[in-house]
Amino acid sequence: MNVLLFGPPGSGKGTQAKDVATTLGIPHVATGDIFRKHLKEGTDLGRLARSYMDRGELVPDSVTCDLVASRLQEADAANGVLLDGFPRSVPQAEWLLGWLRAHRPGPVVVLSLVVPDSFLVGRISGRRTCLKCGATYHVTHNPPPASGCGQCGGEVVQRKDDAEDVVLARLATYARETAPVLGVLRGAATVHDIDGVGAIEDVRARIAAALALG
Ligand code: AP5
């Protein structure tokens, strides 16, 4: 099964993704994480991505689709993937649906996390991320242990694009370029609208209930 985790910045995609991927036995593929890995390694792609990420804009579709195409062809993705943060433009959605039809026919399930804007800035500005394994925390809702990351012991810091001015730009980009993607997906996949407000465990239970429906 191919599952798309959809929602605005800060809606909880990364927080919920690992559990969903583990439950379904499919790899978690997050385009933002892949770009951050390249950035950390200082590759050309990382440098290119940084120029867009630092402004809260989308990395160009051609670059992002090529990246996803090569990831989808890896052996562990043969039976499905959980895509987190992709597609996030109408051209990306059309490309992905075409690619899946041609190479991986079968059900496509969309988990759309619905969180009002009023929650998002507080969630993102309070987010802290492990430099080593990428685990995310929130200073209030899910604080990291004082000794560092609870999963690997790595240093937990604030992401550069979580500064408030960049967050506002990311939300504007979402409204302009990503929100319309949902209309495209509704015509081609099973879309579950999940209330993303409430305790992390409650959102997790809502996702599990939606997945049980198929
Ligand atoms: P990306 O890394 O994908 O960022 P994003 O979509 O903006 O999503 P976030 O990571 O900000 O939020 P999330 O929904 O994962 O929330 P989280 O679970 O962490 O992309 C970064 C950049 O890369 C983009 O701006 C773009 O430049 C580029 N990019 C990536 N993909 C691209 C693509 N397809 N095309 C082009 N460019 C692309 O939660 C947020 C916080 O809230 C955390 O602190 C968490 O602990 C807390 N939280 C989570 N759930 C709850 C809850 N239920 N209650 C209270 N707090 C909660």
Can you describe what's shown?
The chain has 214 residues and is α/β, with parallel strands linked by helices. The protein is 48% helix and 15% strand. The chain is built from nine helices and eight strands. It has a five-stranded parallel β-sheet with strand order 2-3-1-4-8. Strands 6-5-7 form a three-stranded antiparallel β-sheet. The radius of gyration is 16 Å and the shape is globular. The model has no long low-confidence stretch (mean pLDDT 95). The chain binds BIS(adenosine)-5'-pentaphosphate (AP5). BIS(adenosine)-5'-pentaphosphate (AP5) binds next to helix 1, helix 2, helix 3, helix 6 and strand 6.
SS class: alpha/beta
Tell me roughly what share of residues is in helical segments: 40-55%
The largest beta-sheet arranges its strands as 2-3-1-4-8
What hetero molecules are in the model?
BIS(adenosine)-5'-pentaphosphate
Q: Which series of helices and strands comes N to C?
A: EHEHHHEHEHEEEHHEH
Low-confidence sequence ranges? none
Number of strands: 8
Globally, the shape reads globular
| Terminal residue distance | 9 Å
Q: What is the assembly state of the chains in this entry?
A: single chain
The helix count comes to 9
Major sheet attributes: 5 strands, parallel
Mean pLDDT: 95
- β-strand amount: 15-25%
Radius of gyration over all CA atoms, rounded? 16 Å
